Amino acid sequence: MPYQAALAEMLTVDGLLLLQASNCNHQIPAKLYEYLRARRPIMALTDAAGDTATTLRAAGVDTIAPLDDSAGIKQGLLHFLQLARAGRAPLPTPAAVAAASRQARTAELARLFDSVLPQSLALPATASSPEEV
């Protein structure tokens, strides 16, 4: 499926499923940011102690179950489906959706670069042409 078609389909579904193993606890998949921007209910099968679960909870999404526990998966999915059918599955907060935008993520990366680069190497903030840089 082409990428743009996949994004368009995300906007129409009743729920999105995110999978991440505990050996990736210090990583957040790019798919999470796409899911947040889709503003649809999210069910995550991941370690509750990982960065992905922390990001989801901060976004107002608490439908999380452990990926390595079949009973926990069953319970989590049944709970998620019950919430989704009742129209009560948690959605990402507007602030989380805004923070997940490419513009916001790029600004965060720029701040990180600014914090580690010596000021003498920083580019002028308001250069209007390549010759001025």
Summarize the structure.
Helices cover 47% and strands 8% of the residues. With 133 residues, the protein is mainly alpha-helical.
Number of β-strand runs: 3
Uncertain segments are: none
Helix count, DSSP H or I runs of 4 or more residues: 6
Q: How helical, in percent, are the residues?
A: 40-55%
Query: What's the shape?
Result: globular
What's the arrangement of strands in the largest beta sheet?
1-2-3
Describe this structure in words.
With 133 residues, the protein is mostly helical. The protein is 47% helix and 8% strand. The protein contains 6 helices and 3 strands. The chain has helices at residues 3-10, 30-38, 51-58, 70-85, 94-99, 102-116, and strands at 16-19, 42-45, 64-65. The chain has a 3-stranded parallel beta sheet, with helices on both faces. α3 (51-58) links the parallel β2 and β3. The protein is globular, with a radius of gyration of 19 Å. 19% of the residues are buried. The model has no long low-confidence stretch (mean pLDDT 90).
